[in-house]
Amino acid sequence: MGMSDLFNKLLILRTPGIGPVKYNSLLARFESLDAAVASLRVDMQLRDNVLREMERAEKLNIYYICDDDVRYPCALRRVKNHPPVITVRGNLDALSRSAVAMVGTRHATATGMGFVADLAQAFAENNYAVVSGMAIGTDTAAHKGALRAAGNAQTIAVLAGGVDYIWPVENESLYYEILERGAIISEMPVGFVPVATNFIQRNRHVAGIADKLILGEADIKSGSMATVRFAIDYNRDVWAIPSHPTDSRAAGPNSLIKSGVARLCSGVQDFFDSDDKQTENKKMKKNSENDLSLIDKIGMVPVSESVLAEVVGKTVSEIKSELVILELQGLVRKVDGGYVRL
Length: 342
Fold this sequence. Notes:
Blueprint: H1 3-13, H2 20-29, H3 33-40, H4 44-59, E1 62-66, H5 74-77, E2 85-90, E3 98-103, H6 110-125, E4 128-132, H7 138-147, E5 155-158, H8 172-181, E6 183-186, H9 196-209, E7 212-215, H10 223-233, E8 237-240, H11 251-259, E9 263-264, H12 277-295, H13 305-312, H14 316-328, E10 332-335, E11 338-341
Parallel strand pairs: 3-4, 3-7, 4-5, 5-6, 7-8, 8-9
Antiparallel strand pairs: 1-2, 2-6, 10-11
Helix pairs in contact: 1-3, 6-7, 7-8, 9-10, 12-14, 13-14
């Protein structure tokens, strides 16, 4: 594609009120880009703005990737009304990898972020690009975990503003780490400062560019849950990491698991084989048998954790983790005095 075609595409997309839907409608209506631009009666101010944007992009080594370019992410191209043009800064090789999105709350626990980081590292080591939104908390853990893997193209940050606009400012150093070894993408103009509504679009593209999505800690009403809804709409494979029901940050993933919308993510072994796979399978089988023996000891009368631990010959700590799983499966419920079976 020549620079004149790119210039015309940007003129259309940078015209106020025109998004992917109207853009595609214009191209379908007119025989050429020139004719489509002429129909808009673009003024000189807009032309100058687009020229300045393109000049800034060239200066900062920012690429424009159109949806008819082989380098455009395949999964994103399949999304209805995807961005006709995205900007990319960094390693273009990241766009050709299979991708997994990892999202969650900005206020994640240290344990939750550690779990996400370990998952991200494993995916990066297995030639996936880990996609997230570069927010603090879960997003940061995902990007940093991926960057722990050797090599390049391990992670993709999808921004709500221009690819040259660093937000949040706390992640400036992370931005440059990703720029060095991964890729930063956006559908917004170079230099664009985001507003609140742009973050929903950002979430849409995080879900769209990935083959699967893993949700960490997240409140039931959050941007991360919106990202999950986009992933479901796009028929992506959705996983969720469970947590204790009393923590509001567990409400999102636990609800998805309980409803069957997402599969329970228990760790790296859910996705990749290892030399210890047989050992892991035996462990899972043993845990399953233990769960059954535990639930057999729970009835209509509340039973405390300490009593249950004594009955099944385990520690209270072990009992607690098993009870969390049983709660998520809707088999037991915590009440005054202990647990009852549902």
